[in-house]
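Sat 14:20. Reprocessing the chain from the morning session after the first attempt stalled halfway. Input below, unchanged.
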Amino acid sequence: MSRGSSIKYEHAKSSFVLIKSFTERYLFLHTNTRSSKSFLFHIDMKLSFLLFIIVFLSGCNSAEIKEPLEYTGPLQEAENVELFYSQNEQVKVKMKAELLYEFQNGDREFPKGVYMEFYNEFGRLESTLRADHAFYFKNEAQWRGRGNVEVKNVEKNEQLNTEELFWKPSKKDIFTEKFVTLRRQGDVIYGTGLTAKQDLSDYTIGTVGDPEGVHGEIEVKE
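Finished this time. C-alpha cells:
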C-alpha cells in the first residue's frame, strides 16, 4: 500500500471507530435489550464493509500515472519518390524509391528499396546502385543499403553484389564488411570486406577468396 493509501486508511479507520463508539453509547443510554445488540452487530458489519470500500478506492486513486510514450515514428511519408542531387548546377545523382519515411531528426528510410544513378562531370551515366532496403543517416551524411545490394559500372560492365553496403556521398566512396562478389572483365572475385569508389574504378577487398578458401588481399587502382 502506498503512503497516500495508508493515510486515507487511517482516516477512514478513525471515522469508523468514532461512529461505532457513538452508536454504542446511544444504544446504551436508550436500551439494553437483545434487539439492540443485534442492531449493533448489523451496524458493525455495515461500517466494516464501508471501511473496505474506502480503502479499496483509495488504492485505485493513488495508483501511479504513467507518462505518455514519446512517438519515434516517421513524421512524413511519400510514395513514388524521385530525387536529384546536383553540384554546380549539374545533376550528379538521381534516385527513385517507391516509399519514403522521413523522421524528426532528418533521417530517411526507404523500406521498399532504392535505385540510384551516378553521373560523371560530362553528364554521362557512370554507375548504378540498387538495394532492397535503404536508410539515410543525416548526422553522418551516410547511406546504408541492405538486402540484395548491387552496384554496376555501366561503362566497364562491372558488377558488385553484397548484402550490406554503405555510401559516403561527400567522398564518393562505398564500403562494407560483408561478403562480396565482384564480376569484371570475365573474372569473378570473391571476398569479405571492400572499400571502393562509387563507380568501382578503385577498390580494395580485405580478404579475397570464396568462403571455403581465403587467398589474401587484392587492391586495384585506375
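Residues 31-37 have pLDDT under 50 and may be disordered.
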